[in-house]
Amino acid sequence: MNIYVLLKRTFDTEEKIAVNGGAIADDGAEYIINPYDEYAVEEAINLRDAHGGEVTVVTIGEEDAEKQLRTALAMGADKAVLINTEDDLEEGDQFTTVKILEAFFEGKEADIILAGNVAIDEASGQVGPRLAERLDIACVTTITKIEVDGTTVNIERDVEGDVEKVETSLPLLVTCQQGLNEPRYPSLPGIMKAKKKPLEELEIDDLDLEEDDVEAKTTTMEIFLPPAKEAGKVLEGEVDDQVKELVSLLKTEAKVL
Amino acid sequence: MSKKVLVIGESREGSLRNVTFEAIAAANLVSDGGEVVGVLCGDGDLKGMAQEMVYYGAARVITVSNPELKTYTSDGYAQAVQQVIDDESPEGIIMGHTAIGKDLTPKLASRLESGLISDATEVVVEGGDIVFTRPIYSGKAFEKKKITDGLIFATIRPNNIPSLNRDDSLTGAVSEKEVQISNIRTIIKEVLKKSSDGVDLSEAKVIVAGGRGVKSAEGFEPLEKLAEALGGTVGASRGACDAGYCDYSLQIGQTGKVVTPDLYIACGISGAIQHLAGMSNSKVIVAVNKDPEANIFNVADYGIVGDLFDVIPKLTEEIKQMKVNA
């Protein structure tokens, strides 16, 4: 199988967020593979091990994203592609990303493309379904289980807590939800091997795209932090009294009962 | 400039979801005195629900009834809505940021080669621009965004934009649209209902959430009883899910669901950053934890330092008592 994974480099989930000069401050931040994309990498490796073929991880970003690509290679992916937009793009959105990916996938004959259900930074969840539409292949979002048998694919997906069982066929794009698998940690031999695995770097010119072709359809006007939440009232006294006081406060002060 | 704005309605088990009414309110703002047109897909008679959309502010509603639309599939719904868009040429589209909204709107935006602003929590008009506010980094920060080119297309997060008041004196035409649907590439074999009460976490007004302090799957029982007494639903922290006390579908946090209920009761949850990201924008937060130093108390409006297995059943009784007295 010709398997692709769409991967995004994101802030670690334990990072606190600060805004500096109208942008998210990134000095000293730890970066990880977007956790949902990590499920995609793990599942791609499992599919390849079961059905043969090759796993290629693709990211769009800057030079620094090489680290996350190497991590995916260390987990067991075969090849990586970095589409480096550092010199060409100032501001992109999901339209931009998908235009670039659409050009990248031209002529690739992917059997399956796996992506995260959402990225934990911008969290639009648009790239997977948008790309499937451009490539005119079926798309199943928020999957928690996948079985491939020939070209038939049986999937379970999370729909707001319910489980929907879906049958579809290759070629296919899926977006991965928590519960799909437990991503492995890269092993030491895996890390050594990853250093020698192919990592191709492309720019948008290599995909026959001009800046105008990928111009964003949206713009960010402002980034700000939510108002700091002040610590509230910790109740005192016997538990019975605290409970009574709480119910009374919820009713009269907070007015939520 | 006044615009024609479509609202893609969504129903569950025969009634419209609240977020549809909230989307009408958002569309009303985006339309700037133009026309808000509801669209409702399904199978069978959709007139009653279409009428409800009118009472909540839609000027008219287009229903699309087809056996292929009985259950949601992205291919089926994308084709149906696309055909309505072709007829109507709207300048805006608004839908709820629900499982269906998240699945359908990127496909439509891709077909239309348009922008799409997902998961907006606020819409305002600022100097002629329609400005959407949306959380990023799971609510650790927010951004204001606008569409720079063409169609104003957005999904709105449930429970954030107030709907207009229902007014059954409002009138509006309900028309039917016939559509052609072919080549649905996914077949829904079965749906296993997990959520017993049918209230999705993202739309719940009250959430009672448990963390590691709940100690076991059985430990969730008192939380479920409290949720039931409050007409709410149960959620969990990553700690509780990782420990196997409950299903991942209940997880609230930066990985998992981001929720903004009116009342969030955190039980035995320490308050890791990754959890706070998913719930700290709730309107009122109550924390119950044995550890007075727990981080969760820093975001809680009201805190009780104590054993949840002592506090929660008493709280449940007190709530029930209050309801009896009311």
From TrEMBL, chain A:
Its cofactor is AMP. Gene3D superfamilies: HUPs (3.40.50.620). Keywords: Electron transport, Transport. PROSITE patterns: ETF_BETA. InterPro entries: ET-Flavoprotein_bsu_CS, ETF_a/b_N, ETF_b, ETF_beta_N, Rossmann-like_a/b/a_fold. Residues 21-211 form the Electron transfer flavoprotein alpha/beta-subunit N-terminal domain. Pfam families: ETF (PF01012). The keyword Mitochondrion does not apply. Belongs to the ETF beta-subunit/FixA family. The electron transfer flavoprotein serves as a specific electron acceptor for other dehydrogenases. It transfers the electrons to the main respiratory chain via ETF-ubiquinone oxidoreductase (ETF dehydrogenase). Heterodimer of an alpha and a beta subunit. This is Electron transfer flavoprotein subunit beta.
TrEMBL record, chain B:
SMART domains: ETF (SM00893). Keywords: Electron transport, FAD, Flavoprotein, Transport. CDD domains: ETF_alpha. PROSITE patterns: ETF_ALPHA. The keyword Electron transport applies. Residues 5-196 form the Electron transfer flavoprotein alpha/beta-subunit N-terminal domain. InterPro entries: DHS-like_NAD/FAD-binding_dom, ETF_a/b_N, ETF_a/FixB, ETF_alpha_N, ETF_asu_C, ETF_asu_C_CS, Rossmann-like_a/b/a_fold. This is Electron transfer flavoprotein subunit alpha/FixB family protein. It comes from Halobacillus kuroshimensis. The lineage of its organism: Bacteria, Bacillati, Bacillota, Bacilli, Bacillales.
